[in-house]
Amino acid sequence: MSPAPRTEFELPQVARPARRVTEREALHRDPFTSVERCHTEVTGFAKDYYVVDFGPRSGVLLLRDAQVLLTAQYRFLLDAVSWEIPGGALEPGESHIETARRECLEETGYDCGEPQLLLAYRPGLDNVENPTEIFYSETARQVRAFTPDPAEVLDLAWVDIEDCVSLALRRKLFDCVTVSAVLAYRCLMARGVV
User: Fold this and answer.
1) Has residue 99 been placed in a domain?
2) Given a cut of 60, is residue 1 above it in pLDDT?
3) 132-137 and 57-64 as β-strands: parallel, antiparallel, unpaired?
4) What's the rounded Cα separation, in Å, for the pair 45 and 11?
5) 96 found inside a domain
6) Residue 135: which of 194, 79, 78 has the closest Cα?
């Protein structure tokens, strides 16, 4: 069952200022990322935006008996192992849900069944383009044995959802997709939606 958002409250409508992009310059491109400088004039100010585009990505929160499946992955900026939910970048022509299913199977050996949309967000509205959709599945089943891969996933662990929340609040989980997924799902639990 997809979570039903509350509809009682709406944010006030505010008029959008007029915008004009006067210059767009590609600074870097590779198969995974692009960086552009965009000179923009908005009513009342002008600014150069440096936009990093990583492309869209998806993740999936797998649940079994109130436990979450986390993957251990080496992360360069931490120079450490990070525990995260399965996920990754969309392949050309792939939808967010297809990516969630593919990444889950590739990284863990689990088929996530028919995952439900948990939330969608964009991590940086001025300078990071990375539309993200996170799904959840309570019907995952293991279809092949997990094989560690030093370039991808080093290990798996089933962790109680309450322990995941505690780890996030104690700054022991760093990945924004994972933290967002855990906290959003826990909120749905508190509302009795899941």
Assistant:
1) yes
2) no
3) parallel
4) 25
5) yes
6) 194
